[in-house]
Specification:
This protein has one domain: Nucleoside Triphosphate Pyrophosphohydrolase (Alpha-Beta Complex). The protein is of the alpha+beta class. Helix content is 22%, strand content 41%. Strands 1, 2, 3, 4, 5, 6 and 7 form a 7-stranded mixed sheet that branches.
């Protein structure tokens, strides 16, 4: 069975959670957290997430803390998502790049912000589904889980 490891950001911009609104042909609109697969050339999960944030948002995040993980199996593929809470340091959408933006058939990746509170996120169609339950229980706690520390440099090539 193929195991695909991915990292996702619970990216906070002040009191808001930054999400990607995905509009894909043939699917209802849904929201997801920025992030993606850990590639063989990534030094580790946090470096992979920093690369993904740079690609998807032109963003730099502060220190990260792992807060949640979930698995999902579809057919012969198992996906393991690890979520990190982090604060947004900067974002420049004009710097977005990566394979997801190369093919228009991939649909749109629009950036939305929602107040990081269970009542504000309750009606949002989140993928993966288990993230909805996690945020219902812990959204209000996320700002307090942000680690203190120095902001790392931008990813190489970003």
């Amino acid at each position: 069975m193929e195991v695909r490891r991915a990292v996702r950001a619970l990216l906070l911009d002040g009191s808001d959670l930054v999400l990607l609104r995905r509009t894909r042909p043939g699917r209802p609109v849904y929201w997801t957290t920025p992030g993606g697969g850990i590639e063989p050339y990534d030094a580790g999960p946090e470096e992979a997430l920093r690369r993904e944030l740079d690609e998807e948002l032109g963003a730099v995040a502060g220190p990260m803390r792992q807060v949640f993980a979930c698995g999902e199996q579809t057919g012969e593929r198992h996906r393991l998502d690890t979520f990190y809470v982090c604060g947004l340091v900067s974002m420049d959408l004009s710097r977005r790049h990566g394979p997801e933006f190369d093919d228009p058939a991939n649909g749109r990746y629009d950036v939305d912000r929602f107040r990081c509170a269970p009542e504000a996120l309750g009606g949002v169609a989140l993928i993966p589904d288990v993230l909805t339950a996690y945020l219902a229980a812990h959204a209000a706690d996320l700002p307090g889980l942000l680690p203190a520390g120095r902001t790392p440099p931008s990813p190489a090539g970003g």
